[in-house]
Amino acid sequence: MTSAVKDEQAPELRGFREVQRLAYDCAEAVAARLTPGVTEREAARMQRDWLRERGVRDWFHLPFAWFGDRTAFAGFKVPLQFFPTNRKLEPGMPFILDMAPVHKGFTADIGYSGCLGLSPLHDKLLADLEVHRELILREVRERRSLREIYEDVERLMIKQGYVNRHRAYPFGVIAHKIDRVAEHRWSPHVFGFGTQSLKGLMSDALHGHRDGWSPLWSPYRFSDHPPQPGLWAVEPHLGFRGTGAKFEEILVVTDSRDPEQSAFWLDDDLPHVRRWAEERVAA
Amino acid sequence: MSLPGARERRVRTGGIELCVAELGDEGRPTIVLVHGYPDSKEVWTDVARQLADHWHVVLYDVRGHGRSTAPAPLRGGFTLEKLTDDFLAVANAVSPDRPVHLVGHDWGSVQSWEFVTVKRTEGRIASFTSMSGPSLDHFGHWIKQRMTRPTPRRVGQLLGQGAKSWYVYMLHTPVLPELAWRGPLGKQWPRILQRLEKVPAGDYPTPSLPDDAAHGAWLYRDNVRARLRRPRTDAYAHVPVQLITPTGDIFLSEKLYDQLELWAPQLVRRSLPGKHWVPRTRPDRIASWISEFVAANEAAREDGRPVQDTAPTGAYADRFGGQLVLVTGAAGGIGRATAFAFAEAGARVVAVDRDAEGAARTAEMARLIGSPAAWGEAVDVSDEQAMEKLAEKVATEYGIVDVLVNNAGIGLSGSFLETTSEDWKNVLDVNLWGVIHGCRIFGKQMAERGQGGHIVNTASAAAYQPSRALPAYSTSKAAVLMLSECLRAELADRSIGVSAICPGIVNTNITATTHFAGAGAAEEKRLQKRTSRLYGLRNYPPERVADAILKAVVRNQAVVPVTPEARGARFLSRFSPGALRGIARLKPPL
């Protein structure tokens, strides 16, 4: 991966791009089927079934679904609260679908924010995520320390009037590394996370610990290093008084000297990016 | 009389003649105002005048009151059935084709509850705003429920309301009330109202008071016992109801309206600090709530939506809906969170900050979460002239501020000996003078309006916790705390509450902009970063301070320490100041 360049033909990247597209297709398909009364568990199950039908057998983590103020992780104290509950979707409620399927050995980790019905507030949150996507890419290209970038993102959120809700994730991460996963016939998961992916993450953590970097992009000292080449699933998450919104997608970091090639978003044809483009056209 | 520009007419019904006054454009939707006891339609003067700008306002003297004639004999002439006839006669005369919006105060509200719960008025009423007057039927059920299953709490509620209803028992005695009203009580009544109810002096009560009060005693005698003994079981409101509850009403307990949703399915609740005669003491607030509710109902009727769906739902929405709130330092931290909390409660928000962009952003987001209108204003609170200008602009364009939050503040750390006089000036200019200007300029407007209000000043736990690290900051905040206490004493007469908030260590931007006296630029940067990180670790969110501010306004609390450390320090400052002095000597771990 360290020598990957932004080349449409790079087979590895193509694999990741395909699974990321697949996951976003799943999110859009499931979001279209959400109606009042559907529970988080049902929404998570819909994602799982949709992806299983299309050949997904292993997961970085099982699909999550959050409705209402759970999109802003209101009152989350322990990680178990991330798991889908029996909360029912109501008109006007925001929702987030978050899934990380492994397909043909390639991993994706995506987050899709939506709202049942019209909500100007939710639209605003989604629109305000765009500058975060730009900020992260710019600063990664500048090879700033991950911890600094994290702080800059947080500062921007506060300036916008929001609360940083990715801090609620385990280790407060805004992103984590993902990689290829060996395909096994039996791939169990513990606490929603695939063991194969966890194994990969652990081995990265071990190597990183020796070389002074971490596969978790957090606000802590262990993230005080320049971006490590590889694939990062980046997930800035805004919260605003019971409404949350995020996107999550893969950022490719390489060791190229050319800034353009040193970091880029794996795919620019994703629902949230298209949405911003449409908004710009409409404006 | 005291209603200039009113068109008067007489409506004959059931052997009596009602005096009806009309204001405003007859083409607009009609609002009918019904007065209480012992009053006449003049109780509505101020409210009616404001409503007449937008609506067709109709007031009438209830039978036996003001310039309406009294039934003969009086006994049996004041039953709710007959009062309903009167209302229908007036409604048909002033608005034959369109249903009217009904507003009642005191006995006007009691009888209006009858109007909106009986079958024969269906289609004649579009909405009902109730003030200080429950339905006798609901009241009857309320008592029954508490008598049949008397838990300690219910018994307490019964006894509480029982004590507040003392005058009802008095009015049931024969002859004595009439004698009292026509004699000394009638003479003293205006002064009693001024002294106990803080009703401003003027052309109210009218000279007809002794007769109104003597006749009106039959309102009680004809209805209270009958309805409380056998309350109707079908007293469901068939129109949307807005219930305005004055929290300081000495005649009616707020508990009377528990479970009112069962009787009035489309209910919007409002509450305001004030005593029984809110149409006299809080006319602006009452008029704007009536106006809003009528407008919402007219709009809802057009798109066929239930009206309570459009009402804000945040905590304290009943209290702050439609009020004008001004917050300084609103571009971030506690100020911004406070602006948002008020916005969620449906208040109109003026966000003031030096940072124009941040203030505008706060206003924009406030509108998205329930504020009917919000504005960002770029003003430096330490600049007196700018504040004067702002006050003038706010007063002419948005109205008189109901709640003022003087929150803007800056940090200054470092030893006293290294703090320059320039540093002192900067911190005092914003932290103290900003508050003084705010209180003086906006407080004056509030006091002149004479309809109450609230001022919140953000002090700090440093106001009572001495510290070697924050001498200038602590001094400025201690001054704010004392200023708030003094102002509270002075403004209490005018029903303006003053609260000082002492947040403690809260995760806001203040640490990143704090000036460290005596530190070089690089060292200052490091210290700012370090304190920000420590405050981040403490991670007490400004939203919780905002909640404390709203609660302080609702409860009119004097001093509110917010975080546990602020509360602990407050406790120590009172019971063991020596311990605080010890803590003050510690060097902060920076």
Could you walk me through the main structural features you see in this protein, from its secondary elements to its overall organization?
The complex is a heterodimer of chains A (283) and B (590). Chain A is an alpha+beta fold. Chain A has one domain (11-282): Creatinase/methionine aminopeptidase superfamily (Creatine Amidinohydrolase), CATH 3.90.230.10. Chain A contains seven helices and 14 strands. Chain A has a five-stranded antiparallel β-sheet. In chain A, strands 1, 2, 3 and 4 form a four-stranded antiparallel β-sheet that branches. Chain B has two domains: 7-310, Alpha/Beta hydrolase fold, catalytic domain (Rossmann fold, 3-Layer(aba) Sandwich), CATH 3.40.50.1820; 317-506 and 542-581, NAD(P)-binding Rossmann-like Domain (Rossmann fold, 3-Layer(aba) Sandwich). Chain B has helices at 45-51, 80-94, 107-117, 136-148, 152-164, 166-171, 176-182, 184-197, 209-229, 278-281, 283-303, 317-320, 333-344, 356-368, 384-397, 421-449, 471-491, 510-513, 521-538, 542-555, 564-575, 577-585, and strands at residues 7-13, 16-23, 30-34, 56-60, 100-105, 125-131, 241-246, 267-272, 324-328, 348-353, 374-378, 403-406, 412-413, 453-458, 496-502, 515-516, 559-561. With 590 residues, chain B is an alpha/beta fold. In chain B, strands 1-2-4-3-5-6-7-8 form an eight-stranded mixed β-sheet, sandwiched between helices. A seven-stranded parallel β-sheet of chain B has the order 11-10-9-12-14-15-17, sandwiched between helices. In chain B, α15 runs parallel beside α16 (421-449) and α16 (421-449) packs parallel to α17. The chains are: A alpha+beta (283), B alpha/beta (590). The A-B interface holds A 120-121, 124, 158-161, 163, 240-241 and B 332, 336, 340, 344, 358, 361-362, 365, 368-369, 509, 541, 543.
